[in-house]
Amino acid sequence: MAEQQVATRKQPGRYAYDGLDRVIHEKARLSIVSSLAGHADGLLFNELKEVCALTDGNLSRHISILQDAALVEVWKRLRNNRSQTLVRLTAQGRQRFLEYLEQLEQVIADANKAGAADFESGRLNARPTL
What is the mean pLDDT of residues 18-32? Predict the structure, then answer.
């Protein structure tokens, strides 16, 4: 009996959603990764800053975190005597983002299922009993 309880405790809860990668899940980084997922060749720093509505410093910090996690790669080049920074998802970053999306889809499916069950049972607007 005790072994069964230990085994049960080690399993994640049904709604734990361990696949929601904390590095990606933060709002600004989710914005960055989502933007890059739609641009296989990457985006320039200023383009990324604009589409994600981030400041230079904030974007730099989040890119650094994503780069440390091997989710993005960064190239710097000089063009017309101006430095440009290109940011692109790595293959690993694209894979982890797809896995993250699968987990997020499960969250949505679970929420929809629970909402439908509440609606069908009439509990949708019912006052909870304490």
Answer: 93
Q: Which residues of 51-75 are buried (b: 16+ CB within 10 A; e: fewer)?
A: bbebeeeebeebbebbeebebbbee
Which amino acid is located at 83 in the chain? Answer: S
Distance of CA 67 to the CA centre of its chain: 15
Indicate the class that CATH gives domain 19-121.
mainly alpha
Least confident of 6-10, 77-81, 118-122: 6-10
Answer yes or no: are the C-beta atoms of 92 and 73 closer than 8 Å.
no
Residue 122: which region, alpha, beta or left (left: phi > 0; alpha: psi -120 to 50)? left
- Segment 78-100 shows an average pLDDT of 95
